[in-house]
Write a structure and sequence with these properties.
The protein is about 30% helix and about 35% strand. It has about 110 residues and is α+β, with helices and mostly antiparallel strands. The protein has a single domain, classed as Alpha-Beta Plaits (2-Layer Sandwich). This is ABM domain-containing protein.
């Protein structure tokens, strides 16, 4: 994962905010997560993702998509859906998913 946030894009675009608390059972999680990161890159309209996790276990992943069609392609991908089922069965104590349309975006990088 990058140590810098994803760049600001020209709006409008979509953000999928996935907030999780994981269980103790994490067998296969890293491999599946790596596969999902590779798979989503093949979705036309995928712009990138940011991820953060605190020491207490709260994780936040924000995926950015150019349009609703790209987001739908990701949501309906069969391999992604299988990973979601495994997540509910094994890896997540709880999660929330928020989908937002970004109407304003800007960034800053110190020279």
């Amino acid at each position: 994962m990058s140590e810098a946030p994803i760049e600001a894009f020209d709006p409008p675009y979509y953000a999928a905010i996935f907030t999780t608390v994981r269980t103790q059972e994490q067998s296969g999680y890293r491999e599946t997560n790596a596969r999902m990161e590779e798979l989503v890159k093949d979705i036309p309209g995928y712009l990138g993702m940011d991820h953060a996790q605190n020491p207490g276990g709260l994780g936040i992943t924000v995926g950015y998509f150019r349009d609703a069609e790209a987001l739908t392609r990701w949501r309906t991908d069969a391999e992604h859906q299988a990973a979601q089922r495994r997540g509910r069965a094994d890896w997540y104590q709880s999660y929330t998913l928020h989908i937002a349309k970004v109407e304003r975006s800007h960034g800053f990088t110190r020279p």
